[in-house]
């Protein structure tokens, strides 16, 4: 079974009104484009969604991320995003606020943001053909490490230091079937890095 959609960290969620529409407009536009490509979506056989996007806020460690289990929604809006206010990777804990809880991949996004302040956006998609084509030909995390765990955070640090992940901005999650991650200086670059490998 696809290892997806289940929040493995402790989530401290404070329900709050949606973020301003303009705060998520570009992020949401790219999310919907990736959804149209089937890179964000829903596994009906497993009853779980997949794929998520985020952007860092200003010069802080907070970021805006798509909500958990929103992959089935064809057109999302500001009601489907959360702000992650704090992460404790070692304790496997995420603090977030908004109308929905943060994606089950929030800890992975936090780990990637922690690599470099210049990283302003993160994209996580699923695509079996791309995953099989890219695994071990681009930076790849260990097959023994699953998503949403402190170990995955350490894996991203390892491949950032030991491979050209910093330059490519794309990595395969070896222990997370179909999972591919990218980052960029903005959401457009992060998304285009994924789409570049699609065609």
Distance between the termini: 27 Å
CATH class: Alpha Beta
Structural class: alpha+beta
CA-based shape: globular
| Domain module tally | 1
What proportion strand?
25-35%
**How many helices?**
6
Helical residues, percent: 25-40%
Radius of gyration: 15 Å
The low-confidence parts are: 1-6
The tally of strands reads: 10
Q: Could you say what the CATH architecture is?
A: 3-Layer(aba) Sandwich
What's the CATH superfamily, by name? Class II aldolase/adducin N-terminal domain
Strand order, largest beta sheet: 1-7-6-5-4-8-10-9
- What characterizes the major β-sheet? 8 strands, mixed
What pattern of helices and strands is seen along the backbone? EHEEEEEEHEHHHEEH
**CATH fold naming:** L-fuculose-1-phosphate Aldolase
Please state the oligomeric state of the protein chains shown: single chain
Tell me about this structure:
By secondary structure, the chain is α+β, with helices and mostly antiparallel strands. The chain has a single domain (10-196), classed as Class II aldolase/adducin N-terminal domain (L-fuculose-1-phosphate Aldolase). 29% of the residues lie in helices and 25% in strands. The chain is built from six helices and ten strands. The strands form two sheets. An eight-stranded mixed sheet has the order 1-7-6-5-4-8-10-9, sandwiched between helices. α1 runs parallel beside α6 (187-196) and α2 (106-113) packs parallel to α4 (150-162). The radius of gyration is 15 Å and the shape is globular.
């Amino acid at each position: 079974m696809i290892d997806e959609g289940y929040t493995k960290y402790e989530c401290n969620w404070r329900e709050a009104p949606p973020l301003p529409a303009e705060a998520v407009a570009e992020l949401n536009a790219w999310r919907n484009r990736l959804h149209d490509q089937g890179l964000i979506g829903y596994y009906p056989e497993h009853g779980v969604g997949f794929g998520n996007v985020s952007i860092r806020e200003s010069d802080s460690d907070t970021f805006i991320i798509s909500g958990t289990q929103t992959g089935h929604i064809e057109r999302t809006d500001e009601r489907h995003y959360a702000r992650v206010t704090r992460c404790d990777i070692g304790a496997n804990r995420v603090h977030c606020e908004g109308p929905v809880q943060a994606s089950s991949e929030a800890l992975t996004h936090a780990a990637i943001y922690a690599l470099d302040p210049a990283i302003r956006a993160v994209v996580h998609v699923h695509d079996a053909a791309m995953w099989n084509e890219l695994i071990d030909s681009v930076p790849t995390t260990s097959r023994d490490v699953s998503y949403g765990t402190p170990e995955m955070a350490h894996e991203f640090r390892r491949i950032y230091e030991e491979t050209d992940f910093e330059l490519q901005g794309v990595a395969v999650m070896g222990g997370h079937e179909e999972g591919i991650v990218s980052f960029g200086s903005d959401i457009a670059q992060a998304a285009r890095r994924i789409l570049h490998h699609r065609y």
